[in-house]
């Protein structure tokens, strides 16, 4: 009588590599599905993810990457790109040698599917659920509520006055040595700003810094990217080639992502709070100037009668140094505007909408609604 075969170690070792990849693919997909089911149906799992797993996972990521001077995530993306190009080359080579049949295109597709599923699972289980959290409402009792034209104008006037009040000329070495300027001045200043925000009871402490100048700064210029958070490594990447006046606020914005504020309007608001609570006037100036540009953009697109004249009056009351900085920002944007910028905006718009930010790329602009709510709170306290 034949003895039934058992699934022992030697049997497993004889499984073809493609079969292992298929097993890993379906196992990982099952884990992702279970994660979504648990998130949607089990409140205890949501509480565990929000208060237990996620903050500790983000902190561990920063601990692992923060001590490394260069961007680990950027190198990972380069490696992924090279791997993808190699897969395309191998596919074309096999096609030319053996013709187009199931084995020729099946194996590369399976490898791609495994890698994509691994990346998506890592992203969703370790970060993606943060897009579903109303963190600003929970932390600051603020929500996206409608506002009047009068409130928008009042906000713009307040931001313009504060921008003038905190105006600081940019140091000459900021543009000559941008990476050194970022590492020695901007990054430590942003960490101090969040420490100040924590001391005043606004947020939990920010620990284990992982702030990096991006290796892709040249490409980011053409794609219109000032900075980004890498959910796979926990690093906050900053494009150090942008106008130096924007660096303080952009860095505070990316730290807000590291602390779990996934929505762009939420990161804008938290970054604004941190920068405006900093002891360094440059951080306050950078934040007020950036939000002033958002407010003016809202007024420019509101099409209300008299807004053009109102914007002209705001411009006339700005300090000459502030006007020069705004000219530099717009000159920088115009210098790199083009097809790559427009394509990236469409891609990122789709990404944000896929992650429950219904207004896509325009979700950045929603910070105006939060700022108006914040102003209402300040008036009530006063």
Give a description of the structure:
This protein has 17 helices and three strands. A hairpin with a 6-residue loop joins strand 2 (227-229) and strand 3. Helix 2 (17-41) runs parallel beside helix 5 (102-126), helix 7 packs antiparallel against helix 13 (281-302) and helix 12 crosses helix 17 (367-381). Strands 1-3-2 form a three-stranded mixed beta sheet, covered by helices on one side. It is an all-alpha fold and 382 residues long.
Low-confidence stretches: 1-7
- What series of H and E elements makes up the topology? HHHHHHHHHEHEEHHHHHHH
**Neighbour order of strands in the largest sheet:** 1-3-2
Chain-averaged pLDDT = 86
Q: What is the helix content?
A: over 70%
Quantity of strands, as a count: 3
What gap, in angstroms, lies between the N and C termini? 90 Å
β content, as a range? under 5%
Tally the helices. Answer: 17
Going by helix content, strand content and strand pairing, the class is: mainly alpha
Net shape: globular
Summary tags:
three-stranded mixed beta sheet; disordered N terminus; 17 helices; 382 residues; 70% helix
Summarize the structure.
Helix content is 70%, strand content 2%.
List the helices and strands and how they pair.
Elements: H1 9-13, H2 17-41, H3 43-66, H4 72-98, H5 102-126, H6 135-140, H7 149-165, H8 173-176, H9 178-199, E1 211-213, H10 217-223, E2 227-229, E3 236-238, H11 247-258, H12 264-276, H13 281-302, H14 307-317, H15 320-336, H16 339-354, H17 367-381
Parallel strand pairs: 1-3
Antiparallel strand pairs: 2-3
Helix pairs in contact: 2-5, 4-5, 7-13, 9-11, 9-12, 11-12, 12-13, 12-17
């Amino acid at each position: 009588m034949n003895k039934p075969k058992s699934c022992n170690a030697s049997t497993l070792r004889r499984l073809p590599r493609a079969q292992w990849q298929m097993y890993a693919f379906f196992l990982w997909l099952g884990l992702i599905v279970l994660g979504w089911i648990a998130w949607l149906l089990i409140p205890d799992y949501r509480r565990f993810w929000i208060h237990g797993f996620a903050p500790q996972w983000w902190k561990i990521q920063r601990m692992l990457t923060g001590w490394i001077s260069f961007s680990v995530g950027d190198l990972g993306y380069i490696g992924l790109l090279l791997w993808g190009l190699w897969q395309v080359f191998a596919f074309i080579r096999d096609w030319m040698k053996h013709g187009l049949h199931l084995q020729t295109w099946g194996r590369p597709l399976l490898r791609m599917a495994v890698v994509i599923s691994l990346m998506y699972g890592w992203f969703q289980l370790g970060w993606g659920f943060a897009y579903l959290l109303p963190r600003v409402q929970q932390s600051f009792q603020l929500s996206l509520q409608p506002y009047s034209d009068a409130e928008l104008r009042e906000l713009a006037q307040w931001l313009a006055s504060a921008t003038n009040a905190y105006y600081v000329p940019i140091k000459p070495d900021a543009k000559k040595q941008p990476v050194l300027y970022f590492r020695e001045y901007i990054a430590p200043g942003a960490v101090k700003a969040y420490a100040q925000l924590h001391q005043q009871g606004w947020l939990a402490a920010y620990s284990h810094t992982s702030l990096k100048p991006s290796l892709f700064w040249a490409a980011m210029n053409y794609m219109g990217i000032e900075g980004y958070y890498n959910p796979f490594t926990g690093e906050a990447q900053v494009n150090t080639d942008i106008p130096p006046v924007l660096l303080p606020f952009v860095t505070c914005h990316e730290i807000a992502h590291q602390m779990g504020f996934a929505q762009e309007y939420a990161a804008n608001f938290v970054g604004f709070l941190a920068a405006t609570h900093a002891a360094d006037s440059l951080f306050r100036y950078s934040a007020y100037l950036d939000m002033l540009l958002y407010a003016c953009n809202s007024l420019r697109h509101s099409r209300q009668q008299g807004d053009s004249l109102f914007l002209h009056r705001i411009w006339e009351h700005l300090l000459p140094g502030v006007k020069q900085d705004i000219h530099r920002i717009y000159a920088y944007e115009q210098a790199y505007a083009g097809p790559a910028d427009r394509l990236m905006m469409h891609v990122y718009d789709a990404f944000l909408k896929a992650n429950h930010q219904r207004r896509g790329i325009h979700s950045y602009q929603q910070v105006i609604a939060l700022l108006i709510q914040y102003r209402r709170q300040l008036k009530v306290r006063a």
